[in-house]
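HUMAN: I'm a chemist; might I ask for a sequence paired with its structure tokens?

ASSISTANT:
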Amino acid sequence: MLIKLLEYHPSKNILLLGRCNIKPSKMEYRLFSVPFFAFFVALLLFPLKTVCEDLSYNIPEETKRQYVIGNIAKDLNMDVKLLSARKARIDTDDSSKRYCDINLNTGHLIVAETIDREELCGSQNPCTLSYELVLENPLEVHRIILQIEDINDNAPRFANERINFEITESADKGQRFRLHEAHDSDIGQNGVNGYSLEKNKHFILIVDRTADGGKYAELVLEKELDREQQKEIDMILTATDGGSPQRSGTAVIHITVLDANDNVPVFSQPVYKVTLAENTPSGTEIIRVSATDADEGPNGEVTYEFSRISDKAVKIFSIDKTTGQILVIGEIDYEKDKKYEMGIHAQDTFGLSSTAKVIIDITDVNDNPPRIILKSLNNPIPENSEPGTEVGIINVQDKDSGENRQIRCSVQQNVPFKLNPSVKNYFSLVTTKALDREKESDYNITITATDGGSPPLSTSMTIHLFVSDVNDNPPVFEQQSYSAYIRENNKAGTSVCSVSANDPDWRQNGTVLYSLVPSEVNGVPVSSFLSVNGDTGVIHAVRSFDYEQFRNFSVKVVARDNGSPPLSSNVTVKVFITDENDNSPQILYPVPDGKSLMTEMVPKATLSGSLVSKVIAVDADSGQNVSGYVCNHSSLR
């Protein structure tokens, strides 16, 4: 169930996606026209990445750190505990300074750095900062827009503290003399709002508006001058702004009374427009402004200077007072300022002047390589992870604009990983196939981001990712079966043989322990005959064996790893007991009568070599231990 899934704004002619949070208890419906309903159906059939609603706040400049701008958790209708759980953070589109941050405990959006609107935006209005609130699991991005409000923290000031005019005494009543404009770094009502002139008997002040809405003052001759009575006049010119409290700046108007100069310089055009590429070298000529004066001699000699220019622009551009040539003297960076406007003041030798405007539009050059920012990384990753498992999240940024800012991302070949594009310039690094730590325990994943500039710029980042072990291999014995030989009458503890099994898993998953499978030999537990060292696999005799009792038997040895759950395998060990000559022969016939001698009756005429008697004897031993008998006998009488 989606809440405020789509919303149409007729005034802006746009269709917005609403909140991402889903609350079945509160359902809200929207009615759409047929075209927008069709667009809605298209969205359902071809889903887009979810881009959540913007959060907009107003904040005055110069606000101190820790000032609470608003509460993000409340504005998103979200439990504040989820901010920490979902790794909420404030990200910027580029590497510029971050002026706000989020308190994960309270959900407050707070001021992180004091903001100087004039340094940040200059004359640009409105002045906005754009950030991204990133939430993970699932990935969700909200745009945060800070509207920076101007405060009256700058006073108007004149480019020159002393304004010089040389006016002929023959000047007509009502003649006007354009004054240099005052500059105020503030904007709107806090900018220059008016001018006033110290009371005097010759001049009054008229304030008028420029074509772009600014204000300028003209000195108007109210009473003719008389050089013989007064050669010089000083007056205080004051510029005030409209802020609260009101601020002001002053300059001294110094007038030298001369004779005749009745033509003002006239610019060849009122507005000069120039397009300039960023990174233009210092010393490059931008344009030459030109103003002509119909007067002859010294009265027609024109000099040029900036009449209205920002603090930033004055460090970047200069003007030749004689030729009107405007040069680059500083570093031009499109990413800092995209446009400059300045006023040019042309004045003849005796103070008559006019103004023109120069507008410089800065064009972008592909001078910023993309930035790759690793936002999160699951390291190590288990080897039994399914294909498509998310390993990490990256964000790519480029401070350039247009095609220079279009970024393509790729992963080096021959690694089982790829990048899936997500919201905006976010990518998910995922696995493409099953991993096997026993074959590859770690990877160096090189990610390359390339912009669309000409020539293109690229940046690479290498991520060292480890694969963690899973107990997926049982121990394997080196032999399919073992045969062991031990002589009878052995001592207890004698080593019989050694078994060995290998497990390619890691650490405890690959640690092998040995044990005997419980069984019986002739009704006696096998543990009464043998024991096995659990660590080494060496099998020892527990007792002495007797070949005459049994000659061989079999046992099974289990090799079990230390994983969870453990895996195991077993092998059969055949034990063969070898004979020793430890038994004397026993005479079965003739049967001894209990005496040490046995007698046989032999006829006296028996020939030599005749059979006298048979002796039958047995020996419990085997092989050569029973191969023959030797009889001791005395001579027959």
